[in-house]
Structures are given as C-alpha cells and as structure tokens.
Specification:
three-stranded antiparallel sheet; alpha/beta; about 300 residues; binds S-adenosylmethionine; seven-stranded mixed sheet; 10 helices; disordered N terminus; single chain
Length: about 300
Amino acid sequence: MNSSTDDPSHAGQAFKASMRAQWDTAASGWSAHTPDIHAWLHEPTVAMCRMAGVRAGARVLDVAAGSGDQTLEIAREVGALGYVLATDLSPAFVALARDNAARAGFAQVETRIADGEDLALPEASFDAAVCRLGLMFFPDPLRGLREMHRALRPGGGACTMVFSRPEKNPCLTILMSTALKHAGLPARDPFLAGGLLSLGQPDCIDALFRTAGFEDVATTAIGAVFRLPSVDHYLAFVRDSASPILQILGKLDAAAAEAAWSEMRERLMPYTTHDGWAGPNELLLTAGRRAKETT
Ligand SMILES: C[S@@+](CC[C@H](N)C(=O)[O-])C[C@H]1O[C@@H](n2cnc3c(N)ncnc32)[C@H](O)[C@@H]1O
C-alpha cells in the first residue's frame, strides 16, 4: 500500500494547494500591473479569441482567468447578449476578476472558483473556450484540455496561449536560472509538468489537444515583446506578480533574495533599448474544435 506521500492523488492535491496559495499571494500584484500586461498581450489575445471563435452573442469559457484582463476583452466582443464564465483556482484572483467585470459594467460576466482540471460544468454548454497563460501551470494539462473539450458544444472552438521554448523566452530563463542558483537548487527541466515553460516543446501541445479529442488542431507561434520604460519596471512586475520566481526566492533570507534580484537586474539590463526596455517572448496559440455531431 502507498504511504500518503507516495500517493499520486495526494501529491497532486498538495501541488494544487501550493499553487493556489502562491497565486493568491501574487493576485493583487498581477492585477495592479494589468495596464502593462494588457499592452504586452493585447495582440495575441485578440488572435486567441478569433481562433477560439469568440463572437457576438457567444457563450465563452475563460479558464485560469486571473484578474480577468482577457475576460473583459471577451465580454466586449460577445456583447450584452453573450456570456463569459471566468474561472480560476485562486479565490483572490476570482474576487479581482468579479470586481473588475462589475466596475466595467459587464453583467454578461460570471466568475467561479474552479480547478481547470475539474471544472464540473455541464457538458456541451459553451460555444468557445480560452485559457491565457494558465494551462502550463496545470500538473495534468491533458485533463484540463479534456475538461474544456467536454464543456464545448459540438463544433465549438478552443484556443490556449502558453510560452514557447526557453531560448525564445530568454528573460524567463534568466529569472528562473538565477533564482534557482541563489536558492542553491539544481537547474530544472524546463518542460517538467506545471512549470512556466512546460508546454513550450514543439508539437507537445498539439498532441495533447488531439488526445483530448480536438479536431483541426493547429499551433501558431507569435512574438510578444514586453516593452516597459526600464529594466526596473520589469523587475517590479516580476517582484509583484511572478509567482513561480517568488516561490523559489521566498525560501531565502532578505539579503540573499536581494542578491538574486540584483543579479537578475544585471542579466536583464542588456535588453535595454534606445527607448526603454524590450524583453522578447514567444507564445504558442493552439486552436482546436470539438467535432460536429454527425447525424
Ligand atoms: C499567469 S496567470 C494568468 C492569468 C490570466 N489568464 C492572464 O493572462 O492575465 C496564471 C493563472 O493560472 C491560474 N491557475 C494555475 N493553476 C490553475 C488550475 N489548476 N486551475 C485553474 N487556474 C489555475 C492561477 O491562479 C493564475 O490566475
């Protein structure tokens, strides 16, 4: 018999509880940086919504919605006759998404605390589903995709956005490797489930979509340069909201953590340009469709 620590479901629950706690802590910081995040991700978000089939009057599921920046874009697109359900594992994020939607006057938005791997939604109840920068944090992303597939009506579309390969996201690689080094931890396999870059390997996410039952699966890589006035603005964003980095540095005392932030600053400085700071990123937009019912 397995001991509780060998039990994979126990390990999964512990991972989820830790993920929820980390994102609860980072939620207000992420939300406070919404204008920067919005500018960084606006174009890819418009593409994601188009690829999922978000349109006027549609019912849209937004998984791992965070504080709801993309939820508001979707709400605008579906209009008053449409509907958006924004779900997230973190209660703090869901509260922010709910307040942000109310402040924007979008009665067509509902929010719900839900693990993306266990949405417990009625079968075939949405026209489209999206997940922006969330799926890579799921320990079992296939389960998350199966849940999205199940929630879609036949013919409905899904699109997810994740980071691509480490070398295309050099600032994330710098942050992670520096944090691990200062924490005295070994380098991590970037493709390990649940990590920032875990779905960045070519064809990995397409295969997951197909296994989950999606048809017409295609991935588009899209560049998304994070432009900010200076490297210090980027570090402020990371310090306020980048849960995976904060979790590693959280184990260090204040002086050791400051040494890590200082080395990160030095290594990120070369991305300074004549008119600010520009950190390259590459995102993968993967779209698929639930098969139409055959008569
Ligand atoms: C980088 S934030 C992205 C938030 C939002 N989609 C955005 O782009 O602004 C990652 C989000 O994934 C959520 N998340 C992580 N694991 C999750 C899970 N298993 N189920 C649902 N949400 C999850 C976190 O709580 C957090 O809100």
